[in-house]
Specification:
3% of the residues lie in helices and 28% in strands. With 137 residues, it is mostly beta strands. The protein has one domain: Sandwich (Immunoglobulin-like), CATH 2.60.40. A hairpin with a 3-residue loop joins strand 3 and strand 4 (87-91). It has one helix at 45-48, and strands spanning 35-40, 64-70, 80-83, 87-91, 96-100, 111-115, 120-126. The radius of gyration is 19 Å and the shape is flat. Residues 32-127 form the PIH1D1/2/3 CS-like domain. One of its GO terms (molecular function) is dynein intermediate chain binding. Pfam families: PIH1_CS.
Length: 137
């Protein structure tokens, strides 16, 4: 057992700071947009009719997370989106959303599309899960 030397100038350990805190700006007065988090799972006839897999309707069996963000009066070119493994950071001239995600995601392989007629941004992210008795494929 080895004890790390303590740096007297730091006021907290890096482990104590939650991921995504570098994006948080308490002085930013932009309002937070309405958003919704949905979960998707791929099922086939073997799941629905035969019950051959252990999948159920819970979020523990879902493969993808879809975040729908309402952005009224916003153009696609005004949107700045940054995805980390546990944080979604969205900025527009009028809105700001810092969202700590309920599950870690594959931040390198997501997709986003802006539905201008609905004024909604849809972000689809693959959930990163450890393999267990439910998620074995």
């Amino acid at each position: 057992f080895q004890v790390k030397p303590e740096n007297r100038k730091t006021i907290w350990n890096t482990e104590e700071v939650p991921e995504g805190s570098e994006f948080d700006d308490t002085w930013d007065s932009r309002e937070q947009p309405e958003y919704q988090i949905l979960f998707k799972q791929c099922v086939g006839t073997e799941d629905v009719f035969f019950g051959m897999s252990r999948k159920d309707p819970s979020t523990a069996c879902c493969e993808d997370m879809v975040i729908k963000i309402k952005l009224p009066e916003t153009k696609y070119s005004d949107i700045t989106l940054d995805i980390q493994d546990k944080v979604l950071d969205l900025r527009t001239p009028k809105k700001k959303l810092l969202l700590h995600l309920p599950y870690p995601v594959d931040s390198k392989n997501g997709k986003a599309r802006f539905l201008s007629e609905k004024e909604t941004l849809e972000v689809t992210l693959r959930v990163s899960r450890e393999f267990d008795f439910i998620n074995f494929a």
